[in-house]
Amino acid sequence: MRRGAPARRPLAAAPPPESARGDQAAVRAWVRILAVHKRALAAIREDLEHEMTLPRFDLLANLVRSDGQTLASLSRSMLVTAGNLTGLVDRAARDGMVERRADPSDRRAWRVHLTPKGQRAFRDAERRHAARVAKVFSGLSQAEISTLTRLLDKLRTTLREPDLPVPSRPGSARAHPERSARSPPRRTRTKP
After folding, report:
1. What's the Cα-to-Cα distance from 153 to each of 17, 25, 69, 138, rounded to whole Å?
2. What is the pTM of this model?
């Protein structure tokens, strides 16, 4: 640097545009949701899994809400693959918690039903589960829990909207906003 030359100051970074700050806040919120989910699930698993796994608890809970579901409907509601569900139902049937019965309206399908033993096991697990969930939320007031529930419901509603703007990869169906999220891309036939 020459003598007498003005000292150079480092350029201050320009503040990010408003949309980038919103994106950063959303990412921070998402990371916190994942962290809370992971810790809460670990705490609940710790209380339940000495007698019942969380997947089995989920299976029994789904059957308590609607007994006699097909494997396909259980797979959709539990968000698990058919292969994973088959193994889960097999083990629960082996332990006497559920039973498979032929579907009277479709001879190819089976329906899964809770047994009395499964109902008792679920009621016991549900009490432990409810007590642990209450402990997880014990740091929040009732008003805070209500606010959190309302905000999560609002987020869930947003996620259910079919046209949720999602950045897409080139060539994917979502890259074409005029196509519905639920309709497959149009295919054209070529003549041989």
Report:
1. 29, 19, 26, 20
2. 0.65
Return the number of other C-beta atoms located less than 10 Å from residue 97's C-beta. 23
Place of tokens 């890259």: 175
Secondary structure (3-state) at 107: strand
> In the beta sheet, which residues pair with residue 101?
111
- Six-digit token pair at 137? 């939320």
The alpha-carbon radius of gyration of the chain (Å, integer) is: 26
> Which of 152, 179, 149, 151 has its CA nearest to residue 166?
179
Q: Model confidence over 136-157: pLDDT tens digits?
A: 999 999 999 999 999 999 999 9
- The DSSP symbol for 70 reads E
- Token pair belonging to 169: 């990869």
Q: Which residue has the tokens 């096991």?
A: 121
Helix 54-65, helix 71-78: angle, nearest 10:
120
* Exposure on the CB side of residue 163, measured as CA atoms within 13 A: 5
